Amino acid sequence: TALKRQMASLEEERQQIAHSLQRMRDAVLRMENPDDWRQVGLCMTRELRQYMVFRDSSVLVKAPYEDGLFSFYFLEESNEVKAAYNPNSSQFDNRAIKKAVETNTYVYRRNKREIAQYGDSLFPDVHSVIDVPFQIGTLAVNSTCEEGFTQTHIKILEEFATAMSAAYRRLEDLQRIKN
Q1: Per-residue model confidence (pLDDT) at position 63
Q2: Is pLDDT at 20 greater than 80 in this prediction?
Q3: Taking Cα atoms as reference points, which of 161, 42, 168 lies closest to residue 106?
Q4: Within 13 Å and on the Cβ side, how many CA atoms surround 174?
Q5: Residue 60 has pLDDT above 60, yes or no
Q6: Of the candidates 174, 166, 138, 179, the residue with the CA atom closest to the CA atom of residue 35
Q7: Quick check: 136 pLDDT over 90?
Q8: Pairing state between β 56-62 and 107-109
């Protein structure tokens, strides 16, 4: 009865997440060059918005076959992608990102105080942020609310971070073919 309805609802949500992950994997398979990374990130952002409310998302990855970091910011208000490449950064300078990558565990700053403890430089209206590691980078989302993400959200983010690893491997393969 009530328990059966709850179990059916959970199963339906799991299936929706599986479909979202498949759409993201499809975007990864459509990658033909490094510029297509943007489309993968936009797909990821669209799919994640079905399960949680957040301001912006970003992906930070080590450049394949060279020192440097790529940053991609998927901005909510304009639905645009801002990309940056820092050729002089061979390590993750942000303490939270560095910790996430080194420990292979998410780093969740639940409020402004925790954000300040890590020395994050974020938009003034961001009140919580989480970095979830993947192969050689992080997937991050931020919220205008304190404690903007639940354990369920974190599990979903971890699944999407795993899919981002596949995108990174595809990017490496494309670079290998190009060279």
Answers
A1: 63
A2: yes
A3: 161
A4: 17
A5: yes
A6: 174
A7: no
A8: unpaired
